[in-house]
Amino acid sequence: MTELAAALTAAMRDASTGVAVLDTDSGDWARHPWPEVYARAENVAERISDDRAATVGLVGDPTVEFIAAIPGAFLAGAAISVLPGPIRRADPDQWAVSTLERFRSIGVTTVFGHGAELTLLRKHTDAPVVHDLGQVAHPRRSTTYQGPDRAEVAILQGTAGSTGTPRTAQISPAASLANLRGLVGRVGVDQRSRLHSWLPIYHDMGLTFVLVAMLGRAELWQAPTRAFAGSPFSWLKWLTESRADVTAAPNMAYNLIGKYGGSLSGFDLGNLRFVLNGGEPVDCEGYQRFATEMGRFGFDPASLAPSYGLAESTCAVTIPEPLTGLRVDEVAVTAGASEAVRRYAVLGHPIAGMEVRCNAEQAHTTDVSGREVGEVEVRGSSLMTGYLGHAAIDPGEWLPTGDLGYLTDDGLVVCGRAKELITVAGRNLFPTEIERIAGEIDGVRDGCVVAIGTGEASSRPGLVIAAEFKGDDAPAARSAVVARVAAQCGVVPADVVLVKPGALPRTSSGKLRRLEVKRTLEGANR
Predict the structure, then answer these.
(1) 39, 103, 156, 509: which could join 141 in a potential S-S bond, CB 3.0 to 4.6 Å?
(2) Please, what is the average pLDDT of the chain?
(3) Is the peptide bond before 128 cis (omega within 30 degrees of 0)?
(4) 422-524: which CATH topology?
């Protein structure tokens, strides 16, 4: 078997810990020891081998069978691709057709699913073959599965697609294992650890979180993402029930809890020692507000852990040491004729095997005074072999990420995306800062704002802000956004477009698609 499969086998077969999965109907947790999960994985691997499948797909809520299918694919030497289920208000049949098309386009020949998703997928295809996880991933096992010794790809991970056409990163078994070991070592995960996650497993952060628990022989408490989406404050209940010391979420979750959690009571967060913030830009104020509000439940602000990663590097790139807390770099940013102070989260140092540099030659901004801003580039043992259908990346090659940032003694700082940089009257603006400011206006939904530059090639370029709005006085909100942004950023928005909640396009992992909004607004203004 591959080195990845061998490492997971050694960890799972003799572990005294396991995984607890949430039953959303009853609200109860069902615990399964890792050795049981491994037996289920062997049965999945056997089915994959019988199908002679080199690439398998996985869809559904994170049941124990679903979780077992992941190492099952690795045991069989197959690559795995996890795709999201249908979202609310989406046409189920259209979801099934598009999901199957996506699977076929990346070479998937065997799909595993359960529940409603299984029925929908089987309704629309004979190929790829769709198996019922409940029937395949059972715990009964009398022999030891013997898989292949080699595999070129372990994970086919979709990129976020927030800045262009989504692509598929090919992650080798060695790269995946290097990333997992780097995380286990940096965070300090072992058999005493208790990890909790509601992250989607189709996202690199959610998938990696599960695998870190497996490799580290840790106790894992896994809830479906839809359970968090339907009741975000349940996250605090789950953390209390699990007594978790490690958890992770994107920035929007911390903002939501910190902003609206003032009246909550009855939780215990005193066990948390590593609370990772990743997957999207870190809002220092919102993250700190979360820590302050949760302090009454015993939360230690030193457990805050803002981090940086990308699918092309399996998941993690930079992670702070445990109990470092939120470190902030305050810098002067040019705003018209004056300077404004901006606060950026420091995202820690690279994990073992990874390197980071900021290439100033590839940057087109001088906004951050006293810092050499460049395009963030990464290389190392966790890096993908290349995008599916594209040329392979040479070992040791620096990969441009499209992010702009700089390095400090405490680690990496990311300012924004190069492709999303807004140029107005010769000045460069980071959209995340504008979006944060606009999101403070009453009625504007926090985390549901997009700032773009339109018409850069014309004689009158401008800053346009699109925001989801839920309020009674839209004209007043527009005026307030214009005034606040002008005062704090030194640029008067050319337009503020308010749309209904849920109208702004997002990726499957919830990131706003800025470039899609830009194309839509530019098309409407022609």
Answers:
(1) 39
(2) 91
(3) yes
(4) GMP Synthetase; Chain A, domain 3 (3.30.300)
